């Protein structure tokens, strides 16, 4: 029997989601895309703070929709004993609990790992934070760029001697969410084999530091003799490898491998550079980067612009890419065909994982605040209409049309 294509690989798994902003919601968004049922616990009265982030259209935050599609919203007053009690009832009903509050906050609510493990020994609890649950920095508040600063990543941005220019993307938040999802999936596999739950401690700073490809080993292996320069618009350890201007825009060109360098020399009409002592070996090209880049730039300026240069390099199989604006990337036919750009009321980044057994994405929407209060309490806990109405009257449960 084949897989049921109307479902997905995580169908049947249930997740209690105490997350907000980006890193935590990324974990549960990935799980929702694969069929898990996500109960997003939103703290009354306002819920996830991202519900107010711009751009707001038809009373809905596009930012919130992007991060929380496919989830059920349960809006609860956790300061109320009745609110905490119903959440404790939910813990034994789920497989995973994800939270990304600052260390200690979830414990003050009564949902630290020791407490939830007593309620559900098979539970996988994933705590996502900037600095982790232990260590001198653990109690400090933080965000993506705070972790980036501590990881030595911001230091490598910008031109040498100039200002730092970190990327305008949630690279740390999203990648921490992906790291956390990998940990959750592995912990679920371990539980299938052993029946054991466990606590996962996933740190944004750990994730950022994990991205260093050369810097750490260069400094360590050379005992500090090698220093990692700031990159600017060129890859410091490779040549040619960087951003080059044309008459109509800019291009990434990666021709540091010998075969790509030889091909680039041929299309530039400069086969003499192949055996030039300044360019013959990769190490010599790095040492004479200014000369190498200058010859490439002169060639590019003889061409009409980006498209002409790209056509030439495409034919020669030289790695390259245009520097597209966000709008241009959203409209690119490759991203459209692969559903990398997806529409959920408006355009959002699509699901990045591809499975041959489940080629079709699930149709998911984002919830209004407290939209699924009744569904969760009746289906999971068997609450009656009278019980739910009483919780609403006492403002333990809240909802709103946004």
Structural overview:
The structure is a single chain. The protein is an alpha/beta fold and 402 residues long. It is built from 17 helices and 13 strands. The chain has a 6-stranded parallel beta sheet with strand order 5-2-1-6-7-8, sandwiched between helices. A 3-stranded antiparallel beta sheet has the order 9-10-11, covered by helices on one side. α1 links the parallel β1 (14-18) and β2. 33% of the residues are buried.
What can be said about this structure in brief?
Helix content is 38%, strand content 15%. The chain is of the alpha/beta class and 402 residues long.
Counted by DSSP, the helix tally is 17
Radius of gyration: 26 Å
Mean pLDDT: 95
**Which regions are unreliable across 5 or more consecutive residues at pLDDT < 50?**
none
Shape: elongated
Share of residues in strands? 5-15%
The helix content is: 25-40%
Terminal Cα separation, in Å? 42 Å
Order the strands across the largest sheet as they lie in space: 5-2-1-6-7-8
Beta strand count: 13
Going by helix content, strand content and strand pairing, the class is alpha/beta
| Multimeric status of the protein | single chain
Largest sheet: 6 strands, parallel
Order of helices and strands: EHEEEHEHEHHEHHEHHEEHHHHEHHEEHH
List the helices and strands and how they pair.
Layout: E1 14-18, H1 23-33, E2 37-43, E3 56-57, E4 60-61, H2 62-68, E5 71-76, H3 81-90, E6 96-99, H4 105-108, H5 113-119, E7 124-129, H6 144-150, H7 171-194, E8 198-203, H8 204-210, H9 215-221, E9 241-245, E10 250-254, H10 258-268, H11 282-287, H12 289-300, H13 306-315, E11 320-322, H14 326-331, H15 333-337, E12 341-344, E13 346-349, H16 373-381, H17 385-393
Parallel strand pairs: 1-2, 1-6, 2-5, 6-7, 7-8
Antiparallel strand pairs: 3-4, 9-10, 10-11, 12-13
Helix pairs in contact: 1-7, 6-8, 7-8
């Amino acid at each position: 029997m084949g897989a049921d294509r109307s479902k997905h690989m995580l169908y049947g798994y249930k997740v209690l989601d105490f997350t907000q902003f980006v890193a935590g919601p990324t974990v549960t968004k990935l799980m929702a895309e694969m069929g898990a049922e996500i109960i997003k616990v939103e703290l009354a009265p306002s819920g996830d703070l991202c519900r107010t982030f711009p751009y707001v259209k038809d009373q809905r935050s596009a930012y919130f929709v992007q991060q929380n599609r496919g989830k059920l919203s349960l809006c609860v007053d956790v300061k109320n004993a009745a609110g905490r009690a119903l959440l404790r009832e939910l813990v034994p009903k789920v497989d995973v609990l994800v939270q990304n509050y600052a260390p200690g906050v979830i414990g003050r609510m009564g949902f630290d790992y020791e407490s939830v493990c007593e309620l559900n020994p098979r539970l996988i609890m994933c705590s996502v934070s900037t600095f982790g649950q232990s260590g001198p920095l653990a109690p400090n508040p933080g965000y993506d760029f705070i972790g980036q600063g501590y990881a030595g990543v911001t230091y490598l941005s910008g031109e040498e001697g100039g200002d730092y220019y970190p990327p305008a993307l949630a690279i740390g938040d999203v990648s921490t969410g992906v790291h956390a999802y990998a940990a959750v999936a592995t912990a679920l596999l371990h539980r299938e084999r052993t029946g054991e739950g466990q606590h996962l401690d996933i740190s944004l700073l750990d994730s950022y530091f994990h991205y260093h490809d050369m810097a750490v080993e260069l400094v360590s292996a050379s005992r500090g003799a090698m220093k990692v320069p700031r990159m600017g618009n060129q890859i410091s350890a490779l040549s040619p490898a960087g951003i080059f201007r044309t008459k109509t825009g800019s291009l990434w060109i990666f021709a540091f491998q010998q075969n790509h360098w030889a091909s680039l020399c041929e299309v530039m009409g400069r086969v003499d550079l192949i055996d030039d002592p300044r360019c013959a070996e990769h190490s010599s090209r790095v040492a004479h980067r200014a000369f190498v880049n200058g010859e490439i730039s002169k060639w590019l300026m003889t061409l009409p612009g980006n498209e002409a240069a790209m056509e030439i390099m495409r034919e020669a199989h030289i790695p390259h890419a245009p520097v597209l604006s966000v709008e241009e990337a959203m409209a690119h036919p490759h991203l459209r065909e692969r559903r990398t750009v997806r529409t959920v009321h408006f355009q959002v980044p699509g699901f990045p994982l591809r499975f041959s057994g489940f080629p079709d994405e699930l149709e998911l929407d984002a919830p209004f605040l407290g939209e699924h209060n009744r569904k969760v309490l009746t289906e999971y806990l068997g609450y009656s209409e009278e019980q739910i109405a009483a919780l609403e009257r006492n403002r333990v449960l809240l909802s709103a049309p946004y």
